């Protein structure tokens, strides 16, 4: 069996404060994480958690990963924006036009996210986190489709997207032009084998798909750090390091 997406993890100067922000915006539950950090767990059918890990590294440039939050009405979009601002978010300009229906915000540590206008057909079958939107190539979309066992739901003009067979959030890659890489990503994916799976066997499978081993100074830890074909860091956890969402 393939790995599952366990978490999207944030490097954070103040993990608890950032977790409280995202818990408030999403309406998810704040919990202690089984490893270093704190997490928020979904109350809907989103199949992954958010983790917040302590880091003293400064944010450099625009993140390679951001969330697209969905809206069922203009009033809901406005309410999401107002809630985010009240919790410490802010409006930012990343080059969006005045006629764009989405609202671009940053959380208290500067991590970008978008609140999408109602009527977006691409995200119509998704949850509140409609998409984990990534800067990346068509090749890396193919890699993650095989890595997670999520089928491609979009593959046009070097843009790709995948979605779990169970539904929920999509993962999407926008193709060229690409953002400049300025150090380690502040958001990364944590994946894990099933409870009866083998971490090392899964690492070997991912290497065969095009991943590479990576040393980010992690030392002697239970998880394995790899990079996808675009060079984005991700972690392969041990089955025992993960806890179910419910």
Written account of the structure:
This protein is an alpha+beta fold. The chain has a single domain, classed as Roll (2,3-Dihydroxybiphenyl 1,2-Dioxygenase, domain 1). It has 4 helices and 16 strands. The two termini are 21 Å apart.
Briefly characterize the structure.
It comes from Luedemannella flava. The chain is α+β, with helices and mostly antiparallel strands. Helices cover 19% and strands 30% of the residues.
Percent strand: 25-35%
Total count of strands? 16
- Rg calc: 17 Å
Helix share bin: 10-25%
CATH H-level homologous superfamily name: 2,3-Dihydroxybiphenyl 1,2-Dioxygenase, domain 1
What is the residue-averaged pLDDT?
A: 91
Give, in spatial order, the strands making up the sheet with the most strands. Answer: 2-3-4-1-13-16-15-14
Largest sheet: 8 strands, mixed
Order of helices and strands: EHEEEEHEEEEHEEEEHEEE
Determine and state the CATH class. Answer: Alpha Beta
Class by alpha and beta content: alpha+beta
| Number of self-contained structural domains | 1
- Indicate the CATH architecture: Roll
Q: Assign the CATH topology.
A: 2,3-Dihydroxybiphenyl 1,2-Dioxygenase, domain 1
Shape: globular
What is the count of DSSP helices, taking H or I runs of 4+ residues?
Answer: 4
End-to-end span in angstroms?
21 Å
Can you tell me the residue ranges where pLDDT is under 50 for at least 5 consecutive residues? none
Domain VOC: 4-118, 125-239
Protein name: VOC family protein
Organism: Luedemannella flava
């Amino acid at each position: 069996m393939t790995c599952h997406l366990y978490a999207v993890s944030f490097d954070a100067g103040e993990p608890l404060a950032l977790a409280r922000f995202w818990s408030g915006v999403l309406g998810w539950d704040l919990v202690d994480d089984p490893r270093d950090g704190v997490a928020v767990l979904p109350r809907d059918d989103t199949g992954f958690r958010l983790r917040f890990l302590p880091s003293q590294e400064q944010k450099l440039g625009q993140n390679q990963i951001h969330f697209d939050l969905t809206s069922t009405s203009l009033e809901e979009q406005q309410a999401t924006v107002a809630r985010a601002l009240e919790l410490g978010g802010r409006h930012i300009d990343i080059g969006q036009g005045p006629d764009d229906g989405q609202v671009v915000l940053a959380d208290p540590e500067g991590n970008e996210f978008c609140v999408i206008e109602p009527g977006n057909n691409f995200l119509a079958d998704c949850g509140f986190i409609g998409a984990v939107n990534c800067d990346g190539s068509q090749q890396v979309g193919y890699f993650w489709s095989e890595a997670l066992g999520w089928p491609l739901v979009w593959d046009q003009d070097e843009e790709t997207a995948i979605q779990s067979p169970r539904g929920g959030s999509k993962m999407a890659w926008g193709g060229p032009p690409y953002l400049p890489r300025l150090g380690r990503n502040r958001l990364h994916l944590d994946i894990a084998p099933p409870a009866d799976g083998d971490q090392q066997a899964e690492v070997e499978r991912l290497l065969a798909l095009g991943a590479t081993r990576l040393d980010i100074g992690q030392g002697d830890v239970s998880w394995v750090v790899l990079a996808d074909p675009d060079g984005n860091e991700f972690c392969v956890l041990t089955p025992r390091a993960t806890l179910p969402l419910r």
